[in-house]
């Protein structure tokens, strides 16, 4: 079956295909015998499945609602902590947490070079060594520097 047919087949069979797409779909069916045969087979299958549907609304027996209500009222309300009492779930949560922690740790360690200090510049040295005895000499050197 071709892509033109596959993309719009469900809408075509249900009758909801827009007119512009319907023309393209039908033109392809006229030209392609293989697709036309498959669409007819699917239409027949859909007809067989429609024959299996019940003709009317199926009503439950009168005792159905009281039985359901009794079953619901007899069962205890689930507690919040009961959800965590399942050991298989607890192991999965712990495993997922540890895996997340390992991945985050790996990302942080692998990006550690991004947090390294920048290369030292003369300005940074001056800002850091303000109480240095050579600070004035460095200032003069920087002021007189010509590239």
Structure description:
Helix 2 (about 20-30) crosses helix 3 (about 35-50). The model has no long low-confidence stretch (mean pLDDT about 80). This protein has a domain at about 5-50. The protein has about 150 residues and is mainly alpha-helical. It contains seven helices and no strands.
What are its keywords?
single chain, 147 residues, mainly alpha, 65% helix
Radius of gyration equals: 38 Å
Structure annotation, total helices: 7
Rounded mean pLDDT is: 79
Structural class: mainly alpha
The number of strands is 0
Shape: flat
The biggest sheet amounts to: none
Provide the β-strand percentage band.
Answer: under 5%
Strand and helix order: HHHHHHH
Unreliably modeled segments: none
Distance between the termini: 73 Å
Helix content: 55-70%
Brief write-up:
This protein is mainly α and about 150 residues long. The protein has 7 helices and no strands.
Present the secondary structure layout:
Elements lengths: L2 H12 L4 H13 L1 H19 L12 H11 L12 H24 L11 H7 L6 H10 L3
Helix pairs in contact: 1-2, 2-3
């Amino acid at each position: 079956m071709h892509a033109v047919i596959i993309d719009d087949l469900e809408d075509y069979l249900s009758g909801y295909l827009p007119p512009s797409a319907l023309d393209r779909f039908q033109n392809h069916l006229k030209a392609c015998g293989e697709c036309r045969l498959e669409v007819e087979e699917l239409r027949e299958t859909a007809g067989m499945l429609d024959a299996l549907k019940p003709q009317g609304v199926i009503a439950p027996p009168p005792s159905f609602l009281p039985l359901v209500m009794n079953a619901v009222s007899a069962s205890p309300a689930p507690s919040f902590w009961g959800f965590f009492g399942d050991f298989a779930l607890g192991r999965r949560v712990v495993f997922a947490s540890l895996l997340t922690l390992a991945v985050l740790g790996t990302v942080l360690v692998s990006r550690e070079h991004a947090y390294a200090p920048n290369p030292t510049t003369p300005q940074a040295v001056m800002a850091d060594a303000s109480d240095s005895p050579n600070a004035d000499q460095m200032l003069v050197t920087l002021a007189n520097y010509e590239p």
